[in-house]
Amino acid sequence: MGRAWVALAWLAAVAGAAAEGVSGSGRYTPDWASVDSRPLPGWFDGAKVGVFVHWGVFSVPAWGSEWFWWRWRGERRPEYERFVRRRFPPGTDYADFAPRFAAADFQPDAWARLFQQAGARYVVFTTKHHEGFTNWGSSVSWNWNSVDTGPHRDLVGELGDALRKRNIRYGLYHSLFEWFHPLYLMDKKNGFKTQFFVSEKTMPELYELVLRYKPDLIWSDGEWEAPDTYWNSTAFLAWLYNDSPVKDTVVVNDRWGINCSCRHGGYYNCQDKYKPGTLPDHKWEMCSSIDRSSWGYRSDMQIDELMDEPAIIQELVQTVSYGGNYLLNVGPTKEGVIVPIFQERLLALGKWLSINGEAIYESTPWREQKENATDSTWYTSRGAAVYAIFLTWPESNVLTLSSPVPSSSSQVTMLGFSGPLKWQESPGKGLQVTLPSAIPSLLPLQPGWTIKLTGVA
């Protein structure tokens, strides 16, 4: 797929979208009112759990964060200059890191197996971060890509093939802008009244990614400096929804230009690690990272900077109770290794979901999202069942739930534990559930448990 062909495809798509105007039966037009009206494909809401992967040339210095180049050459922080002088030969520039991005131990099938064991229903992979390096042989990235240098492999394609063998949905993260690309800097200097970078780089990349890899999700980023009219976002989305090979199944987020976040798009990210605190009226996603201080791998990370299993489960449960999806990030090393501590966290999440996933996958928010008196008990629902997920084991072995209204037909069970549980109506309202005590030394050591209720109002 040559560069000229991609550029022509992009121009044809833009022209076609513009020509549609407000006419055309069942077709979306290049404006927010139209593209925002597209129903969100159902698979995304049902999936609930995904894994985010930040991987690129920034994994070579592996220090500070994935914003290493900007901190070093953009902000010119002295600690970054000192780091490079200590670790790399004199005169080293950021481009010199690319050949060291070897991915020598990258095993896409092993990654896919790990993500499946983690309970992920979808994976979002960085095709290109703000550094501009593409993890596929982009026709508009010249030698700044993973095929022409570094791994000499199509990382995007290899991981996609491995994931789809396991029926895991594949999402592609793509940064609209690049920190130091001369065409972008020219457009920025011109107050974004020119679109050299968009026409020569951003849009050809997006069309190429869709046509070549047919993603289930596009996770757009890097939009915050320019309006959506500069990015031609609605023209791209109208083509994506009307004519692309994934028009009926693809999902997109909300990062398509200044003031688009939490306002436009298929579902809302709003901001990194977003927590609404109430039930939103639009589908949303919370992205979080096991390493609280970085999305990319850092060789100097410390154990107290990482999320532990209870913290991950708490974020997951709160997110799903409020109707969101949970996207948990890991950053592989430059060799392509997901380090054991990250694997351990993902496997712990998967083990918890293997017991409690019934309350997570395909669930919907209940009329109450949590117990009013505490942040340790959260609700989801699925059909006629209500699930109370509690994160703290009560000392009395009796769980009090004030929100459900029991009836004579109410039944109470615990996921992962056979047989019904004893319960009685609370003196005020709700019910009191007597929890299992067969293995009290083990049950309270878990990071969360689920009570399933049927026959309650």
Q: What is the CATH architecture assignment of the largest domain?
A: Alpha-Beta Barrel
Task: Specify the biggest β-sheet.
Answer: 7 strands, parallel
Q: How many angstroms separate the termini?
A: 58 Å
* Highest-level CATH class of the largest domain: Alpha Beta
Radius of gyration: 24 Å
Subcellular location: Lysosome
Pfam family, one: Alpha_L_fucos
Organism: Pogona vitticeps (central bearded dragon)
Keywords: Glycoprotein, Glycosidase, Hydrolase, Lipid metabolism, Lysosome, Signal
Task: Provide structural commentary.
This protein is of the alpha/beta class. The protein folds into two domains: 3-359, TIM Barrel (Alpha-Beta Barrel); 377-454, Golgi alpha-mannosidase II (Immunoglobulin-like, Sandwich). It contains 13 helices and 15 strands. It has helices spanning 3-20, 32-35, 42-47, 68-74, 78-87, 108-117, 155-165, 182-189, 196-213, 228-231, 233-242, 309-321, 340-356, and strands spanning 49-53, 122-128, 169-175, 217-221, 251-252, 284-289, 324-330, 377-382, 385-390, 398-401, 411-414, 417-420, 423-425, 431-434, 449-454. It has a seven-stranded parallel sheet with strand order 5-4-3-2-1-7-6. The chain has a five-stranded antiparallel sheet with strand order 8-9-15-11-12. It has a three-stranded antiparallel sheet with strand order 10-14-13, with no helix packed on it. Strand 11 (411-414) and strand 12 form a beta hairpin. The longest helix has 18 residues, at 3-20. It is globular and about 75 Å long. The model is unreliable at 1-5 and 14-25 (pLDDT under 50).
